[in-house]
Design brief:
By secondary structure, the chain is an alpha/beta fold. The protein has seven helices and 14 strands.
Length: about 230
């Protein structure tokens, strides 16, 4: 593996494992002036010798782990993270960074301590509507789909990814039925959806976002830019 110091020729690897929203991720990084190379197995990864690895995420965490195992990525990714090399996981790509997921009761990469849990709740709201006194039953839907904000944790709000207050007052695009549950030390930011969950997690140069920055407009691009500059040192 190459050294993380002074990345001159930046080589960004995008894991292609049979799932994931690769097109939008490629387009987002292209707008930031960087091209991505899609990598399908560990032998190709070693030949490419990347500077940065991106794990996109649309799909099933259990399926993703099976695919990572079949393609020989697991040991490589664990060693990569242990050597403090830049790694970004998006949505399901963030969920498999944890120790395990309740989706298929599956053991994951174990890079960031925590468990990926399923939303299991509903909320009844009753209100009078003018003189009709109608009852409204509002259920918090699963999956959590749409725009929501993130709130930087106290230990991270003055530096790193969210050092610009505009980033954590902005809205980001979420679509997920399972959420990141990690300790405060590894929670960079959190989001409220019936309960407060970790929406950005991190350990050394490994970062995971439960939302999709590549689908989150200017705020998402700004966050990816922060990842490249603050975490990767580009």
């Amino acid at each position: 593996m190459n050294s993380s110091s002074a990345i001159s020729g930046v080589r960004i690897a995008l894991l292609k494992y049979g799932a994931g929203n690769t097109h939008s991720v490629v387009h987002a990084f292209k707008r930031l002036g960087h091209s991505l190379t899609q990598i399908e197995d560990v032998d190709q990864m070693k030949r490419y010798n990347p500077s940065i690895i991106i794990m996109p995420g649309v799909g099933n965490g259990s399926y993703m782990m099976r695919s990572l195992i079949e393609r020989g990525f697991v040991d490589f990714l664990q060693e990569w993270a242990q050597e403090s090399m830049p790694l970004l996981g998006i949505c399901v790509g963030a969920q498999v960074l944890l120790d395990s997921t309740e989706e298929g009761d599956t053991r994951c990469l174990g890079i960031v301590p925590g468990v990926c849990r399923r939303f299991d709740f509903y909320k009844n709201i009753y209100s009078d509507m003018h003189t009709h006194h109608n009852k409204i039953n509002e259920q918090l839907c699963v999956p959590h789909m749409g725009w929501n904000t993130v709130e930087a944790s106290q230990s991270h709000e003055r530096g790193g990814l969210l050092c610009d207050s505009a980033l954590y007052y902005s809205y980001y695009y979420f679509v997920h039925s399972y959420y990141l549950d990690t300790d405060t030390h590894h929670c960079i930011a959190s989001t409220d959806y019936g309960l407060r969950f970790s929406s950005i997690i991190g350990m050394d140069k490994t970062i995971g976002t439960q939302f999709h920055p590549e689908k989150s407009g200017k705020a998402g691009l700004a966050l990816l830019y922060r990842f490249l500059t603050k975490v990767c040192g580009i």
